[in-house]
Amino acid sequence: MSEAMVAHAEGALEMSAGARALVVDNLVLSFGGNEVLRDVGVRLEAGEITGLIGPNGAGKTSFFNCLTGLYVPQRGSIRFGGEDMTRVPPTGRAARGFSRSFQHVALCPELTIAENVMIGLQRGAAAGWLDAFLPLSRGRAERARHREMALAALARLGIEPVADSLPAQLPPGVLRLAEIARAIAGSPRVLLLDEPAAGLNSLETRDLANALKKLRGPELVLVVVEHDMDLIMDVCDTIHVLNVGRVLASGSPAQIRANADVVRVYLGEDDE
Q1: In what order do the strands lie in the sheet with 34-44?
Q2: What distance lies between CA 21 and its chain's CA centroid?
Q3: Any residues with CB less than 8 A from the CB of 142 and at least 6 apart, and which?
Q4: Would you tell me which of 70, 84, 99, 215 could form a disulfide with 183, CB atoms 3.0–4.6 Å apart?
Q5: Per-residue pLDDT for 11 more than 50?
Q6: How many Å apart are CA 263 and CA 204, to the nearest integer?
Q7: DSSP 87
Q8: What's the structural domain count of the chain?
Q9: Residues 162-186: pLDDT tens digits?
């Protein structure tokens, strides 16, 4: 192979990898003159689990809300797959493969776990409202397909046996995994998890860590905002540390542990 062909192939691979990254550049967000994000720039790679940490008031929630489309920054950009997502609303991002979980588990108590997961597939449903009231074949086929997808998501996280249980019958750790199953049922390209270990005990957090590792894939950008440092250090490939609205440090878990500034402002203090 000639040098030109090698260079072309390497360039194509680089472009392909870049197309799968979620790239944030010089993000600025202000509320009433108070700048909560200041020129934040990070690259969130597909194939990795990326952690986002920082002390209280660091800007983690604001940054997360910019990624999900709830907040629109005053300056800067968010790009994914070669497309500028900065001002695309949450519904538009969902249509482009963005999915998220919430800090507080929000499952419908009257529905089974499988039915709760199926809710995450309704955005792409083809059947209309009439199918919900009449036994039309299209509606039956789609519900059957959605149940298969829900069961596959539950199985991926190791909790398929609870598919037909109600939320009230299950412990918090399983409910958290069920919510993540709902987020992954539609095979997202970007998965944003907001404090998935909140309210879990050590055994449940260990199960969560094992489940998150199973989600790592070459086509998925997986971002975890979390306070549990043991979890973050265990599952993440790259960690970004925010402090007073700026990126204080980025690197591997080992690099973050060894960073004197991070230890001083965050790791050396109590978690928020």
Answers
A1: 34-44, 22-31, 75-80, 83-84
A2: 13
A3: 125, 126, 127, 131
A4: 99
A5: no
A6: 27
A7: T
A8: 1
A9: 999 999 999 999 999 999 999 999 9
